[in-house]
Amino acid sequence: MLYYLFNYLNDLNVPGTGVFEYITFRAAMAMITSLIVSIIFGKKIIRLLQRKQIGEEIRDLDLEGQMQKKGTPTMGGIIIILAVVIPTLLFAKLENIYVILMLITTIWLGFIGFMDDYLKIKRKNKDGLKGKFKIIGQIILGFIVGGILYFSDDVVVRTEIHGNTNQEIVEVVDNPNCTEFVEYVDVKSTKTTIPFFKNNEFDYSRVVWFLGENADKAAWLVFIIATILIVTFISNGANLTDGLDGLATGSSAIIGVTLGILAYVSGNRLAAEYLHILYIPNTGELVIFISAFIGAAIGFLWYNSYPAQVFMGDTGSLTIGGIIAVFAIIIKKELLIPILCGIFIAENVSVMLQVSWFKYTKRKYGEGRRIFLMAPLHHHFQKKGYPESKIVARFWIISMMLAVISIITLKLR
């Protein structure tokens, strides 16, 4: 909203208002505003949650310090959502299709998580929204996101043309290496980026190569299915990671910084050309959104770090996982998720392995056996006697290492 106000003032030649044209300035303002919202208003929201006696129900899992957390205000994900949405509305271009998709993702998953937390509080136990309803909600979101990204005319990749074409030329650039001009066109594409490969583009139509000439037509279905799986897996992974004070919040902030860098270079023609990655026009605007997300995560960490004064609940954990997944899909870096979101994936896989192995051994031997002392993975280390703060710090360090690896894949191939 402020973007449009200052843009209008700039048209009236008001000095200094043109600074709002710069993505970097608006991103910085979005992060600062997000920090203010999450830290200052977050305190008031925590007090409100305390007055309403909206506390976390804790099951006794025989973990050190666990029962001390009983009654800690939950549903703090509301703070994160407000700290993301408010700065985005103030500083981003709201007609941008990618910003609209990110806002839809935030509110949609925030609502699902809110309903889950609300039912837990109402019933005074850990039985919230049934798992199937969560999954259905995530599938619907994945379908909406995948459908819009595939079918919307505003979602294109800008590419250099060679030879004659019937497509409309949208950009002509002077080539410094020769006397010719380079012409660019916007095309619909189901390509994405593969890390560590020199010719690092993968087309979803290759999955259905056996359809021959019809493979391109069927690519939309493969893309939407992939979107649904990624959104569901990562949002649930973030949900499982939210088991120790500051673990999911800090990891998400680190991932957010990485996604911000990737979004900036993907939305900048010169940077994308230099790095030989797909140039996606208008995705630079997502830097404002992700800056607000980073500010929200860091600001929430003010209260969520050990010992936590508030928990994000499913309201926050489902939301941050969905934001990360959809953001990566938009900038065509979803195949980097196994590296970038390694912590979320490890937590998710640990639960899947634990449950599967327990059921298998119970059928075969009549007694269920476990791979880990407890799942998700962070509880395994708690059972081994590691202090909670040390587990969180080490997981953050691993997240930083994975973030660095994700960034260097831009050139390491």
Question: Could you characterize what this model shows?
Answer:
The chain is mainly alpha-helical. It has one domain. Helix content is 60%, strand content 6%. It has helices at residues 2-11, 23-51, 77-91, 97-123, 131-151, 215-241, 247-266, 269-275, 286-304, 313-330, 337-340, 342-365, 377-383, 388-408; strands at residues 157-160, 169-174, 181-187, 191-193, 201-203. A three-stranded antiparallel sheet has the order 1-3-2, with no helix packed on it. Helix 6 (215-241) runs antiparallel to helix 10 (313-330). The radius of gyration is 23 Å and the shape is globular. The model has no long low-confidence stretch (mean pLDDT 89).
N-to-C SSE series?
A: HHHHHEEEEEHHHHHHHHH
Distance between the termini: 41 Å
The count of β-strands is: 5
Total of DSSP H or I helical runs spanning 4+ residues: 14
Please bin the fraction of helical residues: 55-70%
Q: What is the domain tally? A: 1
What would the principal axes of the Cα set say about the shape? globular
Round the mean pLDDT to the nearest integer and report it.
89
Reported for the largest beta sheet, the result is: 3 strands, antiparallel
Descriptive keywords:
5 strands; three-stranded antiparallel beta sheet; mainly alpha; two-stranded antiparallel ribbon; 413 residues
Short description:
With 413 residues, the chain is mainly alpha-helical. The chain is built from 14 helices and five strands.
